[in-house]
Recover the amino acids of this structure.
């Protein structure tokens, strides 16, 4: 388990790792009586090989896209032999109208004997690794405790309700992944604009230090996102001509819009769509600098 968390941290970085696991990763050894009960029920001819869940680890993350990260590091680590014991994606293809438990299960074995925290682990001892989203974990906890371990008859209506819950969770998870994907695309675009403007305009501003948290620049980029859909970084950088360079160098000391590289993009936006840009200006604190840019371009403030 510690090796998995170490590999995940290397894969995604310290910052993202801090919030990656939504439930602390857990390791467990199957209860002796539970193991005997399962052995009695399944009648395994080779229990040492076939009872793959005597020891296990569980990892709970937020989204299915996060599960893919865990699967990647597990598969790529060369010192384990692993097999996919349960694949919900494959099960959905075989039973597309069925909604049920969706955790991904791997069986992992170390081909050589090893010692962990003073305990000798025999070679090829199977360990079940469960990978779930937070929604799948909630479903599994409910079904395992109330249905799988339940005693007595389960009403069909209750069975139906649980299936409906799983369908709703699957839909919700998919929508979350789409929403995060859109947000990441927007953030990537913002980062690209900021990096390009920092590189081209930043050197004109004495003492300017690029920062990923220039909230004024991010607010401007967000407000005019629709107007930037057809824009290119090169087209905006082409606006950095002598009159604009001189204006930036003259006015940057005032600490207004001219002290920020985003000013070049504002020039491009105003020249492309003066009315909408003027009507929707989002940063009141930079209004005086914005008015200067309009005046420089000969655009009326009315």
């Amino acid at each position: 388990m510690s090796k998995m968390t170490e590999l995940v941290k290397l894969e995604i970085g310290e910052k993202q790792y801090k919030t990656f696991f939504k439930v602390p990763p857990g390791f467990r050894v199957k209860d002796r009586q539970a193991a005997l009960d399962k052995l009695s029920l399944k009648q395994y001819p080779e229990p040492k090989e076939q009872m793959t869940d005597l020891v296990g680890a569980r990892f709970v993350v937020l989204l299915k896209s996060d599960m893919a990260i865990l699967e990647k590091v597990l598969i790529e680590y060369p010192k384990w032999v692993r097999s996919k014991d349960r694949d919900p994606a494959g099960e959905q293809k075989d039973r597309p109208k069925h909604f049920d438990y969706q955790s991904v299960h791997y069986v992992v074995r170390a081909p050589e004997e090893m010692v962990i925290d003073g305990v000798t682990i025999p070679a090829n001892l199977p360990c079940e690794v469960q990978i779930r989203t937070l929604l799948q974990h909630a479903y599994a906890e409910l079904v395992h405790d109330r249905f799988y371990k339940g005693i007595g008859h389960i009403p069909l209506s209750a069975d139906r309700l649980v299936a409906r819950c799983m369908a709703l969770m699957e839909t919700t998870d998919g929508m979350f992944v789409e929403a995060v994907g859109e947000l990441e695309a927007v953030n990537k675009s913002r980062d690209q604009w900021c990096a390009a403007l920092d590189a081209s305009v930043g050197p004109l501003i004495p003492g300017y230090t690029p920062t990923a948290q220039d909230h004024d620049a991010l607010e401007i980029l967000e407000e005019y996102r629709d107007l930037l859909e057809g824009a290119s970084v090169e087209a905006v950088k082409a606006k950095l001509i002598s009159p604009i360079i001189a204006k930036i160098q003259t006015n940057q000391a005032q600490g207004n819009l001219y002290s920020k590289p985003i000013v070049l993009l504002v020039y491009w936006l105003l020249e492309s769509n003066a009315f909408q840009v003027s009507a929707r200006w989002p940063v009141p604190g930079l209004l005086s600098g914005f008015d200067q840019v309009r005046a420089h371009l000969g655009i009326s403030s009315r």
